Amino acid sequence: MTGTVLGTPNPVAIAFFFAFISLTLGITFWAARRTRTAEHFYAAGRSVTGLQNGLALAGDYMSAASFLGIAGLVSTSGFDGLIYSIGFLVGWPIVMFLIAEPLRNLGKYTFADVVAYRLAGTPVRMAAALGTLAVVAFYLIAQMVGAGNLVRLLFGLRYETAVSIVGVVMLAYVLFGGMIATTWVQIVKAVLLLGGASLLSLLVLLRFQLNPLALFDAAATRYGPQVLAPGQLVSKPLDAISLGLALMLGTAGLPHILMRFYTVPDARTARISVSYATGFIGFFYLLTFVLGFGAMVLVGREAIQAVDKGGNMAAPLLAEVVGGTGFLGFISAVAFATILAVVAGLTLSGAAALSHDLWVNVVRHGHADEREQLRVARAATIVLGLLSIALGIAFKGQNVAYMVGLAFAIAASANFPALLLSAFWRPFTTRGAQASMLVGTLSALILIYMSPTIQVQILGNAKALFPLANPGIVSIPLAFLVGVAVSLAAPESRADEAFPALQRRLHLGAE
Amino acid sequence: MIHKPETLAGLAAAQWRLALRLTVAMMAVYFGFILLVAYDKPLLGRLLLPGLSLGTLLGALVIASAWVLILVYVRWANTRYDATVASLRARQ
Fold first, then answer.
1. Beta-carbon neighbour count of residue A456 at 10 Å?
2. pLDDT attached to residue A2
3. Is A274 exposed, middle or buried (CB count within 10 Å of its CB: 0-12, 13-18, 19+)?
4. Which residue, A58, A383, A437, B36, is most buried by CB atoms nearer than 10 A?
5. Radius of gyration over alpha carbons of chain B, in Å?
6. Whether B38 and A94 lie within 8 Å, measured CB to CB
7. What gap in Å lies between CA A386 and CA A390, rounded to an integer?
8. What ipTM was estimated for this complex?
9. Dihedral pair phi/psi, residue A298, rounded to 5°
10. In a mutagenesis test of the A interface, which of B30, B57, B88 is the best target, namely the one with the most A β-carbons within 10 Å?
């Protein structure tokens, strides 16, 4: 394909981008006047409806990595890209069955509230904050690096400029509008992304008599039938299972997703919001089948890889082919909006761990008035915002999809086991929770460091100490085992006696 | 549920049983798919119709099965679970 305008300033993209920024900053201004207490700042006053929260969850979850990365992966390697689409969806039923309702009924602002419900607060919150911040850091790096590359390719801006713009705009949302603004930014973004991806898929399918099979057949005719079969991506089964386990259980441990369940009024609404979210996200990942193969056939693999080796520009290039420069501009602006929204959600959850868990509950032992809570939350937001810009610039050139996989692995090892055991397993103790979260976080981090990706590809060593790219299959069971073993070794009567009260509140809600 | 006495312990046990079964079902479906991808690539590459490989169909079915399992849970929770919660709360 000749003559893409990608990478040169596109007036339509810039117009849509400014329209999005104006709209969302307008929402932030409106939200800022409603953000007077910590409950507003962290939990949007618990007034979000099921549909709204479903869209916001989908908005938080459908990152640019899935829109651009998975469409790109499908367009360059066919079926293998679909394995990612599927892996990212199957965590949602787990969130529904085991996490959403207990979280809503037991906690206040962070997942550590649930773990600390019948255990000693200080040690549990310190360990939980460590896990949360590790997840947020990896996920933020992935999003910021993705943002820098994307904006550079889409608008022709410098990488560092792009990262700084994302950081500053995101800071404005979170700092002034808190969770109310962040939720609405997610909703606007989710609607734009679902609408844009649907329209793009429709325009593609119109060229194939609205029959996806005709599209897949065209891909097989042009690039061979192997594009519809598993290829090289899953060459080591253990690697695939480890990544799959991390994706599945990591969703239920992502702090920015868990925090969303506090924005709804009750457990029933939390449940309904997960059904909406799973519907939207599943639909979106089904669309990536069409987008990926559409780009493969209509743009061509060579043209996609000529613009970006990783294939990340497949969806924007496809938009240009089927809808012209104007549609390319729209899709580019949607992709940028997507990154902004996800980064805002991540920063808010990291700020909650720093201020609500560490400052208010550990340092001040719960004795902080509303004004102090809000002030500390905003200070933490600024720290994280600046940190995310610095990390984005420092980690320039890292593989985004790999970093996301690692964030999921840490979330699945550090947060998920302790969360589940604290709500459902009576003998669980403070020491058990602390040990599980610390071992989960540290084992995931250490195994990542010992993995072939760091040792062989980055440090240039001949061999890695740990054979797998993703630590999930070791670190997740280890976190469970340590939590159980430590709890059984030294029972805690206070935690045991408080279990019936927890169970009552878990199912019946607050009195 | 109708004949059982409505106690909190009974409710908690019923919720846990269903949640665990559905979780195991989702894991079985997903890891079954991953194992097929890992160990029987030619099978998944087999074409059922022009353009439709078994792998693509099964992949779409994994997504559909997530929806179905969620539907099963939500239907149970919105009716039986919520009704029991309401009557237990009323008795408080």
1. 13
2. 47
3. buried
4. A437
5. 19
6. no
7. 6
8. 0.92
9. -85, -30
10. B30
Q: Which of A145, A175, A4 lies closest to A63 in space, CA to CA?
A: A145
| pLDDT score of A188 | 93
Residue for token digits 């119709």? B49
Q: Does A275 score more than 60 pLDDT?
A: yes
Residue A372: strand, helix, or coil: helix
Q: Which of residues 233-262 of A touch B (CB under 8 A)?
A: 234, 237, 240-241, 244, 248
Does residue B68 have a pLDDT over 90?
A: yes
Instruction: Check CB contact under 8 Å for A278 and B70.
Output: yes
Model confidence pLDDT, tens digit, residues A302-343: 999 888 777 888 999 999 999 998 898 888 888 888 888 889
> Does residue A83 sit at the B interface (CB-CB below 8 Å)?
yes
Q: Which among A96, A226, A241 is the nearest to B34, CB-wise?
A: A241
- DSSP-assigned states of every residue in A395-460: TTT--HHHHHHHHHHHHHHHTHHHHHHHHH-TT--HHHHHHHHHHHHHHHHHHHHHSHIIIIIIS-
pLDDT score at A1: 44
Kindly determine whether residue A79 and residue B49, on different chains, have CB atoms separated by under 8 Å: no
Whole-number Å distance between alpha carbons of A214 and A316: 22
Residue B48, phi then psi, degrees to nearest 5: -90, -40
Residue B83 amino acid letter: A
User: pLDDT category, A511, cuts 50, 70, 90?
Assistant: low
Structure tokens at A470: 């993703």
Each domain of chain A, given as residue ranges in start order, spans: 11-397
pTM beyond cutoff 0.90: yes
| Block residue for tokens 């429709």 | A202
Residue from A73, A85, A97 whose CB has the most chain B CBs within 10 Å, to mutate = A97
Q: Which residues of B touch A289 (CB under 8 A)?
A: 56, 59-60
Return d(Cα B87, Cα A496) in angstroms, integer.
26
Alpha-carbon gap, residue B42 to A255, rounded angstroms = 39
B22·A97 Cβ contact <8 A? yes
Residue A152 has pLDDT above 50, yes or no: yes
**What pLDDT is stored for residue B1 in this prediction?**
46
Inter-chain touch A230–B41, beta carbons under 8 Å: yes
Q: What is the mean pLDDT of residues A438-455?
A: 90
Q: Does A286 touch chain B (CB under 8 A)?
A: yes
Q: Each residue of A229-239: pLDDT tens digit?
A: 988 766 778 88
Contact A93 B66 (CB under 8 A): yes
Asked if the C-beta of A210 comes within 8 angstroms of chain B's C-beta atoms, the answer is no
SS3 sequence, chain B? CCCCCCCHHHHHHHHHHHHHHHHHHHHHHHHHHHHHHHHCHHHHHCEEECCEEHHHHHHHHHHHHHHHHHHHHHHHHHHHHHHHHHHHHHHC
Closest residue in A to B92 (Cα–Cα): A511
Residue in chain B closest to A271 (alpha carbons) equals B74
Judge: domain A11-397, CATH 1.20.1730.10.
yes
> Could you state, in order of their start, the residue ranges of all structural domains in chain B?
8-91
Q: Which of A428-432, B22-26, B35-39 has the lowest mean pLDDT?
A: B35-39
Please state, in angstroms and rounded to a whole number, the distance separating the CA atoms of residues A338 and A319.
Answer: 17
Task: Give the closest-approach CA distance of B48 to chain A in angstroms.
Answer: 11
Please name which of A129, A109, A132 lies closest in space to residue A45, comparing C-alpha atoms: A109
